[in-house]
Amino acid sequence: MSYAPILLFVYNRPEHTRLAIDSLLQNSLAKKSELFIYSDAPKEGAQSEVDEVRKLIHSISGFAQITIIEREVNWGLAKNIINGVSSRVKESGRVIVLEDDLIVAPHFLKFMNDALEMYKDEPQVGHIQACEFFEDNTLPDTFLIKWTGSWGWATWERAWNLFNPDGAALLHQLEERQLTRAFDFNNSYGFTRMLRRQIEGKNNSWAIRWNASLFLKNVLSLNVGKSLVQNIGFDGSGTNCGGGGLYASSLYQEELPVIKIEPTEENLKARKSVENYYKRTNSFQAKAIRRIKRTLKGDFGA
After folding, report:
1. H helices within 143-205, ranges in order?
2. Can you give the pLDDT at residue 296?
3. Cα distance between residue 74 and residue 148, in whole Å
4. What is the model's pLDDT at position 21?
5. What is the CATH code of the structural domain delimited by 6-162+217-296?
6. Sign for the pseudo-dihedral over CA of 23, 231, 233, 298
7. Angstrom distance (rounded) from CA 278 to CA 247
8. 8 A C-beta contact, residue 50 and residue 11
9. pLDDT score at 241
10. Which of 82, 85, 81, 86 is nearest to 100 (CA)?
11. 86, 97, 186, 245: least buried by Cβ within 10 Å?
């Protein structure tokens, strides 16, 4: 079995990057895996931090091979990821994707490679997501759902070919087919609004377009009920991450077996669990309480 290349996207957070790489190296498959690191060029004021990150990534070892791509101008995360995934998945047929603020569990790489192999010929599954933050211990170890998380994920060339970067076209299809309510988990979270804001240039999310692309094709994601990824970026250090600890998750330290789910259809209980989570955390009252708590703590992030 050949192992999927790991794509790591970094920018200006040396400590986050160090922790992410250290966690990868705790995986036994690291030494058998190729690592591609995409380092974006600095915006104004970020030169010293980017230089520090680049010094760090040039010092690492422990992978089968390491390739570093240093952008000469600032691309931004969306363009960087779209370009990186498109080029590597064409070469390798499959990829594992991480950003610099993600810590992975010791068996993360084994799970991702096992899942990529298990579902490689299943066209109804196009995405693997290894982060779980829904606080529902009744979820199965793995389940299928029409939703793509972007924190520690993997895909195949056949699925990435479905990616449509045209947000306006995606929104038109969602509205024309009257799917916006379902796309938003029964109106519990504003994914459609996120897509509209991407079209308006108010965010530059590649992830919302990937989510919509697969949703419209009725392609499922394999998700975990026990988290193999932890996002440490909700400390105000990231472009898109504010404070609050809303998406906290603890890392599952044991191996998570990949068992073929049949029939290949969405787990409606899991979908309802995600809907309930968003209803519980995304209501006006919940948002107001979180903002008050963060303000009292001196956290003025988004």
Report:
1. 157-160, 167-176, 180-183, 191-199
2. 62
3. 26
4. 98
5. 3.90.550.10
6. negative
7. 11
8. yes
9. 46
10. 81
11. 245
> Tokens 């077996």 belong to which residue?
257
pLDDT of residue 287: 59
The enclosing H or E element of 271 equals: helix 268-282
pLDDT at 187 > cutoff 80: yes
CA distances from 157 to 36, 71, 85, 116, 175 (A): 17, 24, 9, 11, 28
Mean of the pLDDT values across residues 269-294? 78
Q: Which two tokens stand for residue 57?
A: 């990534």
Quote the DSSP letter at residue 141.
S
Cα–chain center distance at 48: 27
User: What pLDDT, on a 0 to 100 scale, did the predictor assign at position 51?
Assistant: 98
For residue 240, pLDDT beyond 50: no
Extents of the domains making up the chain: 6-162+217-296
H/E stretch holding 98 reads: strand 94-99
| Residue 26: C-alpha distances to residues 31, 146, 253 (Å) | 10, 31, 11
Higher pLDDT, 258 or 298: 258
* 11 Cβ neighbours under 8 A, 6+ residues apart: 39, 40, 46, 50, 53, 77, 100
**The pair of three-digit structure tokens given for residue 6, joined into one six-digit string:** 């790991």
Residue with token string 């988004």 = 302
Length of the chain in terms of residues written = 302
Q: CA 284, CA 9: separation in Å to the nearest integer?
A: 33
